């Protein structure tokens, strides 16, 4: 069998020995996935799912302290690392490991990094010095320690100790670097340094990094493995796993991990904005029925409020994106909210323009004449249907109902067709002077505004389909 991946975990299971009580505990359950050279793989999943166990199994470090049993294989450059011929010292030099808590030895900074070389039998001091310096430079810590190489490693800060441990792992020229929550004990600035370092190191190494920080996984890795209860639930490109995972359980885990209070607040704002625009629409229908100028004034006032809401939503969205870097469904909700709030604002504008046209009409024609015209054209029924479509779009949004959303998208064409017919009728009346030009234009204006509301309702429904079904990629 030819293996093209740098590393291939093949049907791998892992058991901790039950000790004196006997029995054994299965911690990894038939895990399989491949890792290409220069990949950065993030390993995510709930506490106790076996992430650390999998890392330790990759360089067989567990054998130092525990009695364990494994099934399946792990290939490195095509060779099974569990073959009886494998020298574990060699393996641990090829596959370096960095732990959650920095664990430098009680030695000088220099000797910490030189350690692996010395036990590997290298006695060439000049060569050791060069390699130590290179490893410290690669770990972005050289400048901070170059004048104190003989001081104890224990005098370094936590973040420096972690970079020293990375240097120690790099000194033996590994191919693969395993990092078990390398930043979880570090402050944000040190974390940033380690993330920058991973970005640099991936040019020369293949890296597997365990993290509980979803934003970090999204930032540093190109591949993501999601584990649960010892099983690999999903493995794929980080971009895909974070924005459109195959499994709901993956999405739920990632979304839960990202505190989503900002998202629910955003959703509440969108719901309030909808209620307002919905109200305006009802005022407009009432206006058609009663031909009451007061309704138009109410609509114009409400439009101002909708504009304010839109600004507030924009502000919330920028904060969310800047501070929280939403992913998965949350990200889709943020993007869709941005579009939906814009569409709602526009719908409110069109309703307002209709109210203004009604006001103008009242100046030209008597209420009786307007009423007759509206009825004859079937205007009110048309407006009521547009209202239904608009409400359908809102319902699909609030219930996450993509079936209704698709219905809204489909009715668009039909609505535009019947509006065209009414406009034609109006033009005929205008040319035969049955209807004066000015009022005819106002009626056409109203129909055009209603058409735009249908289109925008269609946009909202398309966004609903996007939120709840993804882009299907
Ligand atoms: N030496 C051991 N003997 C027996 N069981 C162990 C041993 N070490 C770990 N386990 C068990 O193996 C399972 C996986 O542990 P592991 O440390 O790999 O999880 P993890 O995903 O790294 O969790 P965390 O995110 O909390 O670090 C857990 O149920 C744990 O209790
Ligand atoms: Mg762990």
Automatic annotation (TrEMBL):
For this UniProt record, the keywords arranged alphabetically read as follows: ATP-binding, Nucleotide-binding, Transport
Q: Does the keyword ATP-binding apply?
A: yes
Asked if Cell inner membrane is a keyword of the record, the answer is no
Provide the GO MF annotations for this entry.
Answer: ATP binding; ATP hydrolysis activity; phosphate transmembrane transporter activity
Offer one Pfam family short name for this entry.
Answer: PhoU
Superkingdom assignment = Eukaryota
A Gene Ontology BP annotation from the UniProt entry? negative regulation of phosphate metabolic process
Q: Which SMART domains match?
A: AAA (SM00382)
The record, for InterPro entries, names: AAA+_ATPase, ABC_transporter-like_ATP-bd, ABC_transporter-like_CS, P-loop_NTPase, PhoU, PhoU-like_sf, PhoU_dom, PstB-like
- The segment(s) forming the ABC transporter domain are 7-254
| Record Gene3D superfamilies | P-loop containing nucleotide triphosphate hydrolases, Phosphate transport system protein phou homolog 2, domain 2
List the GO cellular component terms.
membrane
Name by which UniProt lists this protein: ABC transporter domain-containing protein
């Amino acid at each position: 069998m030819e293996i093209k991946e740098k590393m291939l975990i093949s049907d791998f299971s892992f058991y901790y020995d039950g000790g004196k009580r006997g029995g054994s505990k299965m911690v990894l359950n038939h895990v399989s996935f491949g890792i290409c050279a220069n990949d950065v793989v993030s390993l995510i999943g709930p506490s106790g799912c076996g992430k650390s166990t999998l890392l330790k199994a990759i360089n067989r470090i567990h054998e130092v302290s525990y009695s364990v049993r494994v099934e399946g294989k792990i290939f490195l450059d095509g060779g099974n690392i569990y073959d009886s011929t494998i020298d574990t010292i060699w393996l641990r030099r090829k596959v370096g490991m960095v732990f959650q808590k920095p664990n430098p030895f009680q030695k000088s900074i220099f000797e910490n990094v030189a350690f692996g070389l010395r036990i590997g039998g290298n006695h060439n001091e000049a060569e050791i010095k060069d390699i130590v310096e290179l490893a410290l430079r690669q770990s972005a810590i050289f400048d901070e320690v170059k004048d104190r190489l003989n001081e104890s490693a224990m005098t370094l800060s936590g973040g420096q100790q972690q970079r020293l441990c990375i240097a120690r792992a790099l000194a033996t020229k590994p191919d693969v670097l395993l990092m078990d929550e390398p930043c979880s004990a570090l402050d944000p600035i040190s974390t940033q340094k380690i993330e920058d370092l991973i970005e640099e190191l991936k040019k020369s190494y293949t890296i597997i990094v365990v993290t509980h920080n979803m934003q970090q996984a999204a930032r540093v890795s190109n591949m993501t493995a999601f584990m649960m209860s010892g099983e690999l639930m999903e493995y794929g490109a980080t971009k895909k796993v974070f924005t459109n995972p195959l499994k709901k359980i993956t999405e739920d885990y990632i979304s839960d991990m990202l505190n989503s209070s900002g998202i629910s607040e955003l959703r509440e704002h969108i719901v309030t904005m909808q209620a307002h625009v919905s109200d305006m629409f009802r005022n407009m229908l009432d206006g058609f029925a009663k031909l009451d100028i007061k309704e138009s004034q109410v609509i114009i006032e409400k439009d101002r409020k909708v504009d304010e809401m839109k600004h507030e939503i924009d502000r919330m969205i920028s904060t969310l994106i800047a501070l929280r870097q939403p992913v998965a469904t949350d990200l889709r909700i943020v993007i869709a909210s941005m579009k939906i709030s814009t569409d709602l604002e526009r719908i409110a504008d069109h309703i307002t323009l209709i109210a203004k046209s009604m006001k103008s009409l009242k100046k030209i024609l008597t209420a009786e004449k307007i009423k007759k015209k509206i009825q004859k054209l079937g205007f009110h029924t048309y407006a009521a249907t547009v209202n239904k479509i608009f409400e359908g779009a809102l319902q699909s949004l609030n219930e996450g109902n993509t079936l209704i959303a698709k219905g809204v998208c489909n009715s668009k064409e039909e609505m535009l067709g019947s509006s065209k017919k009414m406009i034609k009728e109006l033009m005929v009346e205008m040319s035969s002077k049955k209807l004066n030009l000015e009022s005819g234009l106002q009626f056409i204006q109203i129909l055009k505004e209603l058409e735009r509301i249908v289109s925008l309702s269609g946009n909202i429904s398309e966004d609903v389909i996007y939120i709840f079904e993804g882009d299907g990629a």
